[in-house]
Amino acid sequence: MRTMLQSLNRIMHGLVAGDLVMVEEAARASGMKATIDPRFEQKLPPSYLQLGRRVHTRFDQLADATRTGATRDDVLKRLAALTGYCVACHAAYRLEETP
Ligand code: HEC
């Protein structure tokens, strides 16, 4: 989670600075390679895992688009869509400690 938050922060800094390499690297850091340990995955509901895979895929797609010459506007649109997954999942799921 914190990796994704850090990615969002660096993507926005990269956009402001006009540094698309920074945007691409920051997005890639939260791509599919950042998914959780498979042993932990078995404990999570399928719909949760699916949302998780989607958000990581969106980060990869943002990185790919940036590499292939996406405009700032395009990156912003992708960012808006991507952060919708953060909001949706946080609204639906909570982590709770079991006693
Ligand atoms: C598939 C579900 C899911 C998605 C998608 C998701 N999160 Fe989370 N996130 C959670 C859950 C569950 C928690 C635990 C907090 C809770 O119990 O409410 C959490 C917690 C966090 C925390 C607090 C972590 C900590 O160390 O205390 C941050 C920061 C966070 N998410 C950022 C993000 C960002 C940014 C995105 C989108 C880029 C995102 N999350 C997308 C499920 C998700």
Task: Explain the layout of strands and helices.
Blueprint: H1 2-17, H2 20-28, H3 38-41, H4 46-67, H5 72-92
The structure holds heme C.
Heme C is lined by residues 1-2, 4-5, 8, 48, 51-52, 55, 85-86, 89-90, 93-95.
Q: Which stretches are low in confidence, meaning pLDDT under 50 for 5 or more residues running?
A: none
Number of separate domains? 1
Tell me, what's the shape?
A: elongated
* Counted beta strands: 0
Explain what this protein looks like in three dimensions:
The chain is built from five helices and no strands. It has 99 residues and is mostly helical. The radius of gyration is 14 Å and the shape is elongated. The mean pLDDT is 94. Heme C binds next to α1, α4 and α5.
How is this structure best summarized?
The protein has 99 residues and is mainly alpha-helical. The protein is built from five helices and no strands.
Quick tags:
elongated, single chain, binds heme C, 5 helices, 99 residues, mainly alpha, 0% strand
